[in-house]
Amino acid sequence: MEYIKVDKEKCGLCGGCVAVCPAKVIIMYKDRLEIRDGCLKCDKCIKVCPVGALSKNG
Amino acid sequence: MDKNYDVIIVGGGPAGLYAAYKIEKSYKVVLFEKDDVIGEPIICAEGISNNTLKQFFKESDLPFIRNRFSKLKVKYKDLEANVDIPDMGLIIDRSKFEKYIADKVKKENNFEIKTGSFVVDAKIENDHVKVILENGEEYFGKILIIADGVESYLPNKVGINSVCNLIDMYSCYQQIIHDPKVKDEEIIFDFTPSVAPGGYLWVFPRGNNEANFGLGITSSLDCEKPYKLLNEYREKNYPDAKILREFPGCVSVNQLSRMYTDRVMVIGDSARAADPITGGGIDNALRTANFAAIVANSVLKGKDFSAKRMSQYQELVEKDNSYSIKKQNQLREMILKMSEEELDQFFTSAINLFNGKKILSTDFYSTIYSFKSSFKAIGMVINFMGSLMKDKYLLKVIMRLMWK
C-alpha cells in the first residue's frame, strides 16, 4: 500500500507538495497528482498542503 | 519533422512566456505548456507593481488590467496604517495577461507554443539539451529555459537542486469574494499572527466590490490549515460575502542558490524567485525571464554553452536584486524568529511610521530622506513597507541606507 494517499476532491493542484518533496517522487500532471516509488515518509507534503488533501494511508 | 531548436522553454506562465517574447525573432524557439490552454487554470492573487509593468510593457493600452487602487491598509492586531499610494497599485487579470504575452510570442516572434505538452525529463548531452515529453517525443535545444512553476520538477533532472524547505513555503488559500464592504480603491494586508501565522491575510480589490481574498502561512509552523483560518476570518469580518470561486495555492521563496548549469537557466517561481515578504511572483518572473532572454540571445551568437557562460544570468539577477530578493529573505528570516513581543514592537513602529503618509512613486528620494535614520531597526521597518509596495526605487534607497 502507498504511504501517502491523495484526496482528489480536495486537491487543487497547487504544486506545494511537489516543491517540498525531497525525494522528488510527486509529479503533477495537468489533471492529477502521481506519487511514485521512493517516498521517504518525511510527511512534508502533508504539512504543506493548504487543504489537507494528503494524508497517511491506513 | 525537425525537432532541433535554438531554445526550448518549459512552462507557459508569465516567466516562460515573457522569456520567449524577449528572445530574438531570428532564433528557432519552442515553448511547452502542460495545460491545454495558456492562462488556465489560474492560482494567483494577481498583484503586480506599476513600476514593473511600466518597465516590461511599453504599450500604453494594456488590456489585462482589472483594477487600480490608491490606498494601502496594513493591519496588525488592533493597529492599522493607512497610506496613500497614488498610481502605484494594480491588480491584473492573470489569464488575459498570459494570453496577451502568448499572442505576442506567436504573432510577433513566430515561435511555436505547444500546449498539452508535459515535459517529463531533460538531459544535458554533448552538443544539446534533450527534453522528453510524456508521450515519449524528444526535442533538442541548444539552450533550455526552465519555467515550470512552483511545482517545478525539471531542474533536479539536470542537476540543479530545487527542493524547497518547508520554512521557505507559504501555504495559501484564496477565495474570490463579492461584498459591498470591499473597497475597490484599497488593498489590505493583515499581519496579525493569530490570523495568519508566519504570513498575512490579503484583500486585493478586483473592482466592482470583488476581491481576491486569501491568506498564507509559513508552512513549517504548527497551526490550522489555511482554508480553516480564512473561513474563520471571513465569517467574522465579511459575514455577507458571496464566494465566487476558491482554491489552494503554494508560494515558494528563497531563491535557488544556483539558477543555471550547462545550457540551462531556471527562471520565475521554479527558481523560487517570488518576493519573500509578499509572496508576489509575477514581478520577479518577468525580471528573471528578461535576464535569461538577454543571456540566451548573447550565448547563441557564440559556441560556449558552459555553466560558466550561463552564470552570467545569475550575475544579472543578483546585481539587479542585490537590494531585493536576498535582503528581503534575510528580513523574512528575522521576522520569523521574532517573539510575539518583538513582533508587536516591529509592527507598531511600522504602522506609526507610515500611517497617514502619502507616498508618490516619483518622490521616493525625498520621502525616504525624511525617514532617514541610522538605526537598523527603522531601516527594517521601511524596508518591509517597501516590499509591500513592491517598489524597487524605494527598496534601493532603503537598502543603501541600511546595508552600507
Automatic annotation (TrEMBL), chain A:
The entry's keywords: 4Fe-4S, Iron, Iron-sulfur, Metal-binding
Presence of the UniProt keyword Flavoprotein in the record: no
One function term, GO molecular function aspect: metal ion binding
Domain 4Fe-4S ferredoxin-type, first and last residues per copy: 2-31, 36-58
Organism: candidate division WOR-3 bacterium
UniProt cross-references to Pfam families, sorted A to Z: Fer4_9
The protein's name: 4Fe-4S dicluster domain-containing protein
Keyword Ligase: no
From TrEMBL, chain B:
Pfam family, any one: GGR_cat
Top-rank taxon, per record: Bacteria
UniProt domain Digeranylgeranylglycerophospholipid reductase catalytic: residue ranges: 168-243
Annotated protein name in UniProt: NAD(P)/FAD-dependent oxidoreductase
UniProt GO MF annotations: oxidoreductase activity, acting on the CH-CH group of donors, NAD or NADP as acceptor
NCBIfam families: GG-red-SF
Residue intervals of the MnmG N-terminal domain: 6-150
GO process annotations (BP): phospholipid biosynthetic process
Keywords: FAD, Flavoprotein, Lipid biosynthesis, Lipid metabolism, Oxidoreductase, Phospholipid biosynthesis, Phospholipid metabolism
Organism: candidate division WOR-3 bacterium
Cofactor(s) it depends on: FAD
